[in-house]
Here is the input.
Amino acid sequence: MSVTPTGRVVVVGASAAGLAAAETLRREGHTGTITLIGDEPTTPYDRPPLSKEILSGAWSPDRLSLRAPADLDALDLDARYGCAAIGVNVSESTVLLADGTEVPYDGLIVATGVRPRLLPGRPAQVLRTLDDALALKDRLGPGRTLAVVGAGFLGAEAASVAAGLGTHVTLLEPAPVPLANAVGEDVGRILAQVHLDHGVDLRTGTGVSEVVPGGVRLDDGSVVEADTVLVAVGSRPNTEWLTGSGLTLEDGLVCDEFCAAAPEVYGAGDVARWHNPLFDTSMRIEHRTNAAEQGMAAACNLLGAQRQFAPVPYFWSDQYDLKIRAYGHLRGHDEMRVAEGSLEERKFTAVYRTADRLTGVLSVGMPPKSTLAWRHSIALRARWQDAVPASSTGMAR
Amino acid sequence: MHVEVDVPKCVASGQCVLLAPDVFDQRDEDGLVVLVNENPPAEVHDAVRESATVCPASAIRLEES
Here is the structure.
């Protein structure tokens, strides 16, 4: 189940995961052709700053390049930017491109990412690509109004930047507490209060049915007016091009603990749903760090390493003056406790229990190095009762 | 091998510190990267290369000699 060092590898998806895979193949001594296929017309660029430094104007777009041109050239890639893959024939080992070209492969890495979910009604702004971010940025500032639909990480970051630029922001969230499923209700309530403190009109328990001229219509039929509507209601994995290929698709490309979807076919990044042995569960992670780590893992295993991909996931989020950092698998946790600091002061380390294990840690305003010790315990599958001091403030989720 | 870090890009994930603790460290207050050894010895080159690939901010650049 591996390619020879001179075999032809096709990597579909030219963002963080695809690039990490291509770079790792070369580093591990692969000398065969590596074809990197990306539907955007640009060289690989980074996405997390889109809702942060690019939206605020702190960075110019040229800072987004994932690699310097010389480093990209050194990889000697057969790069096909601005060219979407529209199908794969697994039995013939070929990828079909939108321009009709068929690209044969000995090994395939699928890293096609996700795209924003949309709402019914008129077209609205989304935030996934550089063009999306620049278009939204032009519509922010004093005297402008913005309705953000969805108070997840992306919506919260965009709301925070927009408010910081003087935009009047309405943030609409169907759940009673934003991000409760990701970080727990207690931390979610703190993050909600921070929006309110910065003048954002956060309305929880508020579903949006459609985008209408001049705003959005809520589930109760009323309309929230806004010059601009940003829809940030989650993403869909880009797997349609794999339909009918025989590969298993279930909210992502289903992969095993080695990131393999089929012999010689591997998945990486936002699109890949794989079995993470560390938490003994299937997961699909839309975080930047995982994209690179999984791209590396998929490449190594395509070359025959046969190493399980069992990472401790990491994410960060910048919201107003808060830096939120988390390690582990927090979703579906059974209990959260504040291990250090205090929620009220917005300086704390929260730890998360799932069954009898410590499975996650999230910190706000704490020295990041202190979080690494908790990460270490998560990686070692520490039992909750051994890892978490009994004196911590207990808070059921 | 010569290592450079772009500190303003760093997002304090600590991935490089986990992989190559003799080469990278983090500032206590904000976790941003501190380059401990810009010309690391050969035995840690693989770990440094992995750090550069996995860095979620692409803040590590290598000059291979």
Remarks:
- The CA atoms of residues 6 and 49 of chain B lie 15 Å apart.
